[in-house]
Design brief:
Strand content: 15-25%
Shape: globular
Number of strands: 11
Distance between the termini: 53 Å
Helix content: 25-40%
Oligomer: single chain
Radius of gyration: 18 Å
Length: 272
């Protein structure tokens, strides 16, 4: 039986890569390719919705998939734990599955997991992430996910030490961790997680060099997992056995965050 896949944002960079992977996979067929301005009715008839749109419209795509009783795989950036809390009750009530993948790169997932394992042993942690100048949101979904994993791993030892966070130059705090975002030409994606302690420092670095090659294996894994998923699942690491001590899940927000009139704002506003 062929799975009909509707790809939102299928004309963009990530969406194009996802489309190529879907078309090359046995048992999957691209039934619709939508832009961020397409009608949601174009999702009708799909067995799986893949969202690679923009942070501003992504939440509407996810809600539309849930309303249709269809599982959704989200590769769009900007989905923090607080924002996922907005749709978690909808997914659970519908009995569907929503899989959020901040980064399809296996190397990136492993790098974030290593940083989380090391985090309890270093009092200071900061993240520096860089993407091409055309990326419209910051911090990146990968940086947000890494910070949330680090915070979960530090539950017993407490928040990281981050002095002077009231100063704008100290970056945006995500789960108590300062995150610094660079947007410049000549780079695809790069993340450095810098862990510091008395007399030493450990830096975990991941570089994306060729997106299609880097993301392909993770997209295939996520497609297969999303098809049968139930409830909300976050991160490609949920489907991988990395052989590392896994930190507990990040605590869900105590209440959904009101994003006002700007969907995705939670993940993009820089603290003063």
């Amino acid at each position: 039986m062929t799975t009909r896949v509707a790809i939102v944002g299928g004309t963009g960079k990530l969406g194009g890569i996802i489309r190529d992977v879907v078309e090359s996979e046995d048992g999957f067929d691209v039934s619709a390719v939508l832009s961020s301005r397409s009608q949601l009715a174009d999702l009708d008839g799909a067995d799986l919705v893949v969202d690679a749109s923009t942070p501003a419209v992504s939440i509407d795509i996810v809600r539309a998939a849930i309303e249709r009783g269809v599982n959704v795989l989200v590769g769009t950036s900007g989905w923090s734990a607080e924002r996922i809390a907005l749709v978690r009750p909808l997914v659970e009530a519908a009995g569907t599955g929503a899989v959020f993948i901040p980064n399809f790169s296996l190397g990136s997932v492993i790098g974030s997991a290593i940083a989380a394992v090391a985090a309890p042993f270093f009092p200071s942690v900061e993240i520096v992430e860089a993407h091409r100048e055309t990326k419209i949101d910051s911090p990146s979904g990968t940086a947000v996910r890494t910070a949330e994993l680090i915070a979960a791993a530090r539950t017993e030892v407490g928040p990281v030490e981050s002095p002077h966070v009231d100063q704008r130059a100290r970056g945006q705090q995500v789960a108590s961790i300062p995150v610094h975002s660079l947007r410049r030409p000549g780079v695809v994606a790069r993340q450095e997680t810098i862990l510091s302690g008395p007399g030493e420092s450990l830096t975990v670095v991941h570089d994306t060099i060729e997106p299609a090659l880097a993301y392909g294996p993770g997209i295939r894994l996520a497609l297969a997992a999303a098809l049968d998923a139930k409830g909300v699942i976050v991160g490609l690491d949920s489907f991988l056995d990395l052989g590392l001590r896994r930190p507990g899940p990040a605590a869900p927000a105590s209440r959904p965050v009101d994003e006002g009139d700007v969907p995705g704002q939670v993940a993009r506003v820089t603290s003063a």
